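Below is one such record:
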Amino acid sequence: MVEHRPILTVLTHLVMLTGILLIAFPIWITFVAASHDAIRMTQVPLPLWPGDQFWHNMKITLLGSGLRGTETTPVWWMMFNSLVMALSIAFGKIAISIISAFAIVYFRFPFRMGFFWLIFITLMLPVEVRILPTFEVVANLGLLNSYAGLSLPLIASATATFMFRQVFLTIPDEMLESARIDGAGPMRFFWDILLPLSRTNIAALFVILFIYGWNQYLWPLLITTDADMTTVVVSLKQMLTAAEATPEWNIIMMTALLAMLPPILVVVFMQKLFVKGLTETDK
């Protein structure tokens, strides 16, 4: 029997609303700052309500003409760079991880589990730890200032491999035997049975990995020296110190607002599959 206590209900709702306000208030300030002109954002007190310059600021920000005194790449192009990088990392990680998990679970070869644990140990070696040798390899291969250089060093994923391995272990052996009886080879079994059963897990991983790739800062900062290859996350820091002048907060906040949109859209449109992929256990 569940007890209904009004005081606890009110308290939990207040805690929830407080958490929402703490998270939403900075986003609201970003939106407000993006809707005023540069002069208003240097005056005290700062505005708490939207202005009438939102669409004007969006136009000059996307075209790259809003930040005076600097040679900047248009924000739409930087967002395109970030999109290519995020999609390459997400699809690359998923493709490599699901194939490696398939090999580890369904094939018998010497040192099979040893290779799995070697992959798993790489969790202790993030990009920041191995960044110097990784940079040297990428530079020697001539991949600086390229989409391949931005994405290839980041597409290996021990976490995704482990997740797909756990998913494949839940699939009954009878399905594999049935596929063999029907004459299906390993790849036919992979395409027709494993991939459809892993659809929700792939969707959940895609959301996580897309946001991971979109929010990358250190690696794009190191690997790109050409302004045309700059990502939008890196450009935000550069805008703060551009031309040694007073930051144009309306343009910077509009850029930050635009940078939030793709991850938010991915989460919103894939929310159901994302939740199912993280909670579904029965196949």
Observations:
- The chain has two domains: 6-63, 75-279.
